[in-house]
């Protein structure tokens, strides 16, 4: 199957565009139906907590217990969640598409990889990784951090969540930038378009000639920038889009 799905043609305006390089951006909406809270929906995480209290380096310096506790609870929750039909559909596309494909996720859960996706960048970090502030090592981490366990590499009690907080630089920006410039199709799934740099990717990819598609429950802040927006649940829209693409 893999070798067959390397190209698709999509009607855009009056012409046909040859699609070989795909970039997919995902946000909290793709994991919502797996039971993981989004950030900005009604009752979402940022209604329950202030960003300034739990998601900045300053918050961590001021009250590490509060911040570690917040991420310990979330790390525990994501391990109980299961990938849904949207994660599974993207993993299938990743497996079968022999052209370039990159899934850039803003999510810090591991549901894309548990569904089987491999061409994946966690631009905002990962819950299941701990970062040692003393020796810079990153270690796969499933347990709590609030009791200050020693770093497996250097022994210092200096582990923090490997999460990109507000005011910090997202990961692997060079690779992301290259993929954005080269893609023919950019698809944004389940993100409100409120946080940069990810919110700007639709502009970048359009500038370089990509067709841009948004799949989201509600119109996002950037909906107007896309060639096409489809509204609905990720578990319905994403499998249908993948089927249409490879048909
Ligand atoms: N299917 C599709 N989309 C959904 C669903 C669903 N079942 N449920 C919610 N959504 C949509 C909402 O309509 C909203 O537009 O997902 C989007 C979620 O938006 P946010 O909560 O803002 O999440 P996200 O865009 O991923 O946030 C970006 O903000 O605080 C930071 O670092 C955090 O990575 C996060 C970043």
Give a short overview.
Helix content is 33%, strand content 22%.
Mean of residue pLDDT values: 93
The parts where pLDDT drops under 50 for at least 5 residues are none
What proportion of the residues form beta strands (DSSP E)? 15-25%
Q: Can you list the ligands bound to this structure?
A: adenosine-5-diphosphoribose
Structural class: alpha/beta
Strand order of the largest sheet: 5-4-3-9-10-11
Rounded to an integer, what's the Rg over CA atoms?
19 Å
The sequence of SSEs as H and E is: EEEHHHHHHEHEEEEHEHEEH
Number of helices: 10
Helix content: 25-40%
What is the strand tally? 11
Give the biggest beta sheet: 6 strands, parallel
Q: Shape, please?
A: globular
Distance between the termini: 12 Å
Task: Describe the protein in words.
This protein is α/β, with parallel strands linked by helices. The chain has helices at 29-32, 45-48, 51-54, 57-62, 64-80, 85-96, 111-115, 173-182, 201-207, 234-246; strands spanning 8-12, 15-19, 22-26, 101-105, 120-122, 125-132, 138-140, 159-163, 185-189, 211-216, 228-231. The chain has a six-stranded parallel beta sheet, with helices on both faces. The chain has a three-stranded antiparallel beta sheet with strand order 7-6-8. β1 and β2 form a beta hairpin. The longest helix has 17 residues, at 64-80. The protein is globular and about 55 Å long. 39% of the residues are buried. The structure holds adenosine-5-diphosphoribose. Adenosine-5-diphosphoribose binds next to α1.
